[in-house]
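Open question from group meeting: does this chain pack into something compact, or does most of it stay loose? Before anyone orders reagents, we agreed to write out a predicted structure and look at it together. Recording both the input and the output here so the notebook holds the full record.
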Amino acid sequence: VTVMTTVGYGDIVPMSILGRVLSAAVSAIGVGLFALPSGVLAQGFMEIFEEHCQAESDALADLLDEAAESGAQLREEMAGLTAEVARLQQLLQKNDDSVKKLVKKKQMPRKKKSPSASPRNSSQRTRLSL
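Structure tokens returned:
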């Protein structure tokens, strides 16, 4: 008790037993007046801190859930887009085949024109080609 409640250098101390008991009681009450409210105050801070930590962890859990949901939605959209790309590639391939067939039909040999229908000199040919 003396170590916890020492005031000054110990120059003045109670000499009687009643004085020592009274000073020990007053010292203990003085320490209790500061220790009890500080413990209650610290407990209040700890509760607020724990609530804050819990709120942050709940917010992070919500963000993770949203990220997982959006990831699943993105995978579904990606699968749909992949199927659409495959369908468009098939359609493009069919169109390419159709174009190739048309080009082959156009390149079939034609009847030759008669020489009388062609221009007579090279200057007329040049003008016609322009």
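Observations to bring back to the group:
The chain has a mean pLDDT of 81.
Residues 17-106 form the longest helix (90 residues).
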